[in-house]
Amino acid sequence: MKLSYLRLAALGLAVSATVAIAGCSMMGGGASTPTSLSAGLTARMDQPGARLDRAQAINLVNAYRSTRGMQPLTSDAGLDGTAQALANQYAQTGTTPSTPQGMSVMKLSAGYATFADTFSGWRNSAADAAGLAAQGNKAGLGVAYNAASSYGVYWVLVIAN
User: pLDDT tens, 20-45?
Assistant: First the structure.
């Protein structure tokens, strides 16, 4: 009985997050962000002093994973460092980095200023959505900005066991 209640509560949280993110994808072009999402998910990473709230971002990914029956990911400082290094490389070179050895999945994105928009793009792509729900138990997230590049903001999510 308790397990059913917990599953129902997790599903409710996941549906709420999915509905909120659905509003993101209807905004058209990501020029503005909905007010229903937290500032940590809608903060523009192409602004001076921008700071990504990795915990909120991983929580959003976990809400999505729960709708797919997957276990939640734990944020990992080492994987955050790996993802950040890959995002920096991606932003400086414009070249898609290779998935590091030992990673289950690496999701990339470029051009979206906020994590909410990035996540929405991943969720709306069949291949990326499958990656978000891949096997793994820990994750790292990185973002880098390069004003001189064609996309500006570059995102990397890595998932590992």
Answer: 444 443 333 344 444 478 888 999 99
Q: Is 141:83 a contact under the CB 8 Å cutoff?
A: yes
Q: Residue 26, Cβ neighbours under 10 Å: how many?
A: 8
Query: What is the reported pLDDT for 79?
Result: 97
Q: Which of 156, 144, 134 is nearest to 79 (CA)?
A: 156
Distance of CA 104 to the CA centre of its chain: 15
- The answer to whether 145 touches 87, Cβ cutoff 8 Å, is no
Cα dihedral across residues 138, 105, 44, 94: positive or negative: positive
The Cα 136–Cα 141 span in angstroms is 14
